[in-house]
Structures are given as C-alpha cells and as structure tokens.
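Marked as duplicate of an earlier ticket. Keeping the data here for the record.
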Amino acid sequence: MDAGIAAVLGALAGTIGPAMVGWASRSAAKMQMRVDLIREGRAPRRASYESFAAAATALRDHLAPWITFGRHFLRPSETYPGAWDGVVVVKRGDFKEGFVSRAVELADDVSRCGRGVILDGPSLLEPQVTKVMETAVAIASPFRVLQMLDDAADGDGASVYDTSRLPDQLKLLEQSVRAFLLEAGAALDDQPAGRRPPYRLRLTGRQRRAS
C-alpha cells in the first residue's frame, strides 16, 4: 500500500474511531434513559393493577365459604333435597360479627381500585375492569341490602334474597380477575392495543344469566 494512502487511512481511522465511540456512548445513554422512563411509568400502573386484583380476590375469598356452604344452612327446613330454589331469609344475626360490613367494604374496595385502573389506563383494560366491578357489586348485593335494612331498622333487619345465582357469580368473578390479569400483563409489556384483540372471557349460559 502506498505510504501516503496508508497515512491518510490511519488519520481517518484515528478520527472516526473516537467519533464512533462517542456516538455509541450517546446512543447507549439514550437507550438507558428510555428504559428508565418506561420502568418509572410502569411501576405505578403495576401497583394499581395488583391492588385491583387483590381487592377482587379478597372479596371472593371472604364470600366463598358462605356462598359454597353457609347459605345452605338457611334453606327452609320443609324443602325437599334438590327442590330448593336458593331463596333464603338472611339477617345480620346469621353471620359472625363484622362479616356483613366487611363484605360491603371489600366490594367498595374493588370499585375504588377499579376506578384507579381506568384512570391509569390503557383504555384496553376498561372492559375487563368493568366486568370485575359489576360482578363484585352483584355478588355483594345481598350484604349491602342487609346492611341498609339493618341501619334503617336500627336493629337486626332481615331480607328475603335469591342466592341461586351466587355460585355462578363467584366463578365469574374469579374468571374475570384472571382475564384482567392477562390484559394487564400485556399492557405492562407495552403491546399496542390495536395490534392484538382483547382477551375474551368465555361464559356458560348460566354465567351469562348470573352476570
């Protein structure tokens, strides 16, 4: 190689080398800043999603024993096996102290946390959040009615309530929370809402009627 050309190439390499290093350093710094911004923006949403799912799960766990077993102890004694329509007369005295008020409080927590998720976004989550909130309201409704009657009567108020749909509503709540978590995980991964269809919850005929 000609000595003059070699000298020119050597000079160019000496100039380009530091420039490439500087460019790479700036690019790496920009990438790290973007990662940090994404992480900082993701953390509050993740906490919001987890709080919502935890509130709905707490409501489900609180009511599951009574819906699965406890309500059967309130069935009228004259009903035949298999003939019970799920209608019971419920009053505060049928539950241990604080059970009714706790059920109402947990349902309110679901609504409060759900509104937080809707505010945090993205909008893709709104249908799943609404489904969980609506199911929570439905499953806690006999206890809210009982609390209202008890407060109005200033005593041990009683209410006749059809509990036949509660088991399906309990399952629907659990399934809706699972569907929400799937969508929330995708949202945290920053998957564009327009590029993937939302998770569709498959309902049985009984669950459609329960919702």
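See parent ticket for discussion. Residues 191-199 have pLDDT under 50 and may be disordered.
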